[in-house]
Amino acid sequence: MKYKKSQIFGIPIIKKENVYTLNNDELSYLKTLPVRESDPDNGALVGKNVCVLQDEKFKTLREKINECASSYIDDILCVDNEFEMTNSWFAKSKKEHKKHDHKNTIFSVVYYAQAENSIIRFFRSKNIITETFNFDLEYNSYNEFNSTSIDFDVRTGDVIIFPGHLPHKGINYSDKEKIIIGANYFIRGSVGKDRDITSLII
User: Fold this and answer.
1) What is the model's pTM?
2) Domains of the chain (ranges plus CATH)?
């Protein structure tokens, strides 16, 4: 499994390639699930089921996504706290899934069930240079330090993991509909320490 680690302003974004490919039965079943209109101008639809990965049809995929989440917790966050998937959904888009973030989550996992020529773009309002000094600088080229956005190419079977508060949007350059399955994760159990007066049970 290929593994790519990136950051924009110290925010960890993980891309894993070829994690899992839905078989024909799984993909056909996913396409039959009920949806609600999200962005009619761009042909974006979101599934009505907010726990789609609890469906036994997606048991193997759920396990793969949980494995990806565990590696993010162990290798990137490097914490012993417990996390669990709080909700999951799917979305379809013909062209663009408009800019948004994910509320009530610490990190999110996005799995690309069907994507031929697509990107996910992450945003920040300021780059690392203008975060403290808000200068209107003249850039001659862009990199991870002076940009306010970063793009990831994504294909069928890929997974992207990122903090849920990070604004992002999906762009589909293919004539074929893009389909993603997303999942949010939140901390569970005891957090903090009594001696520091920070203990909390979630």
Assistant:
1) 0.89
2) 3-201 (2.60.120.620)
